[in-house]
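Could someone model zinc ion with this protein?
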Amino acid sequence: MPPPEWVEISPDRWTQPFWDAAGEHRLLCARCEDCGLMRMPPGPFCPSCRSQDLDWVELSGRGTVFSWTVVHHPVMPDLAGSVPYGVALVELEGGQGVRLLGNLVGVDSDAVEAGMEVELEWADIRPGLSLPRFRPAGSQTI
Ligand code: ZN
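Reply:
Sure, complex below.
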């Protein structure tokens, strides 16, 4: 996990609900009110029908690994103690194929494979700011 002082977010009107819910350990996904397409990350226009009307759907946080990488090189000296670490692109259950990026924890990097079932847990950075990360489904939370 990065040092807390490194983590800054800049929510806008399209992403504020996501971050507000994340701070409460709830995963929200934007859904077009007109055509029902879910989208992550949320943005001002539906890529299918161009509507700007959206609502929010709470997802379970369960999903499957679509792709992943393992970071071995610390891009900053302060990360030297954190490598190697995994980052996964997870296809979310109930999300119509939307994917969410997050650190992968609780699994040896050699054991990760496409389609592996994972579940969301929240990394608390500071009060009101939490980041999504994933661990193998059914594994013990730290
Ligand atoms: Zn739409």
